[in-house]
Amino acid sequence: MVESVSKTVDTDVLVVGSEGGGAEAAIHASKYPVKVTLVTKGRMGKCGATMTAGADFTVDGKSAFEMGFKTDPKDSPEKLMVDIVKEGAYLNNQKLVEVYVRDAPSRIKELVGWGMKVIFAYGRVVLTFGPEVVKALKVGLKECNVEMIEDTMVTDLLTKNGKVVGAVGLSLRTGDLIVFRSKATVLATGGWQMVYPYTAATEELTGDGQAMAYRAGAGLVDAEMVQGIPGLPVWPPAWRFASFLPILSGFAGGYITNSKREHFLSRDFPKLRTKTDPECLATIPTKVPLIYISILTEISEGRGGPHGGVYFSLPNLEKLEEQGKRIIDLLFPNWTFHKADFSKLMERLKEGPIEVVIGANYMCGGIRINENCETNLPGLYAAGECAGGLWGANRFGSALTQVVVQGAVAGKSAAEYALKTHLLGINQGQVKSLQNKLFQILKREDGVKPVELRKRIQKLAYDSVFFIREGTKLREALQKAKEMKDRELAKLYATTKNPICNREWIHAVEAENMLQMLEITAKSALTRTESRILHYRSDYPVTDNNNWLKNVVIRQVAGEMHVTTHALTVSFLTPPKGILPYKEATLPIMESELVH
Ligand SMILES: Cc1cc2nc3c(=O)[nH]c(=O)nc-3n(C[C@H](O)[C@H](O)[C@H](O)COP(=O)(O)OP(=O)(O)OC[C@H]3O[C@@H](n4cnc5c(N)ncnc54)[C@H](O)[C@@H]3O)c2cc1C
What we know:
Elements: E1 6-16, H1 20-29, E2 36-39, E3 56-58, H2 61-66, H3 77-87, H4 94-113, E4 120-122, E5 125-127, H5 130-142, E6 146-149, E7 152-160, E8 163-171, E9 177-187, H6 208-216, E10 220-221, E11 226-235, H7 244-252, E12 255-257, H8 264-268, H9 289-300, E13 310-313, H10 322-331, E14 336-337, E15 340-341, H11 343-351, E16 354-363, E17 366-368, E18 380-382, E19 387-388, H12 399-420, H13 428-443, H14 450-464, H15 471-487, H16 503-527, E20 542-544, E21 550-557, E22 560-567, E23 579-581, H17 582-594
Parallel strand pairs: 1-2, 1-9, 2-6, 9-18, 17-19
Antiparallel strand pairs: 3-5, 4-5, 7-8, 8-9, 10-17, 10-21, 11-16, 12-13, 13-16, 14-15, 20-23, 21-22
Helix pairs in contact: 1-5, 1-12, 3-4, 4-12, 6-16, 14-15, 14-16, 15-16
The structure holds flavin-adenine dinucleotide.
């Protein structure tokens, strides 16, 4: 019989997640006289999306110029704010946009001060590498007093009288249950990319933060807005899901063809073509949902490859323009990326096309916050990709700027709140019931294997809640998700009973969060009966500014999913009226990405 052991950690500010958002939150909270504890499921610098990023920081050209970069001083913070909201098709919380643009220069300067190397700056982009960001954050963390607890999965928030008073976690190293008692808690746990079968994101990103916030009663906003990444290798398997290729093709372009060798993307998007070759794409933009729809249509109509993708090749490397060449030399020296060697993949590409898919890359929706990163629950804050509302219906700027800006704001807000409050007692009944739920997975001798349930969740997400959505399929997905919840969650079991370093156990706990996020994404997508940038409904193929300029918010109330729509937060740009066909509404918004 497995016995659960528990220990208690008391802290003022508990930060969950150690990368861009979490590390910044911890650093900025620790500027106040409070105890800060940073907990992470992996090890800092080896988990989450931050270290995998390309990585670009967005900042307006004028501020970048004033920082010493050769950018356009005629650009302005106000112009950047307007562009972000237009590209987000007006669903953005404009107060979050203001904070993003206002604080970007300070956060970038801070990272540079901690040693982050900038490899190149152009337009509104300050380019570096994800590991450089994490390296700098580690320097920042060393300068302050933060308790770091790694290899620990926070599984649920503890609440008392509607306030968040702590959390429980499982130590992956010892199998112990840890009870955190905190005055304020910041969630910076990244996205829920693992709900989808194709992604370059790391395995920790199972939507834990959003799912536990939802269970505690926090609102989730615009969860239907999922961003993809085309050009993710699926075959040959040696390079499966290597983000190197989509990042490279974002600068170098290439050919995308179907099984009939037709160049359907250059046909559908003539503006993407190189000047010299009408079939070759100058760039394969990552954030353009119209491209996802073209690719998925080829696949669903039977013109895809045997592994569920389309074909990619790179015949044009020699003919790249000066700037493209320069960026590629700097980002991928000798075809390495983050010190990993991709020269064999480049050799393989010379032999002919490889099969690529669209991956789930970034979640625009998430925990609903205000400009102080406060949620609707006192004591709970969220920052980074875990939080929603900044990007509206499409992410135009850099997520890295978002995570460091919001991390700093959340840390400050949480510390100030902690100074005004005291540790509230926790509800032992709640701890006991969470503990039982977790340890039952080890005690059960038979039932549902986590790996099987996760595969079925991912298949359902891909089949019904990916980039081409339709009411009947969304309703079916919700029904199937409910069945999985009712019939399978309580039967999950780990074949290995040892609680120490038991990945299967953790996979089982994550499966509940993945299923929860699948359900929330499907419900939001079903609710929004229009198409808007990242959210395409084949049964509602219009962008409806008369009825749908509002956010979809999902909360758990008395154990039930509660959906509401909320008026937009508008502070500087009034949205337009009118109803337009989806493609007509989307193409002009995409223009800057298509021809950058
Ligand atoms: C392949 C790839 C390339 C990208 N490239 C770029 C780019 O070039 N530019 C850009 O701007 N954006 C890019 N993005 C997006 C960007 O990297 C992320 O949005 C951003 O890094 C998220 O930062 P974060 O701090 O919010 O979360 P993450 O960096 O994802 O970190 C999440 C943290 O939460 C922890 N965690 C999760 N669950 C738990 C739990 N239950 N308990 C405890 N800890 C938990 C994880 O261990 C991790 O520490 C890219 C994303 C991917 C996947």
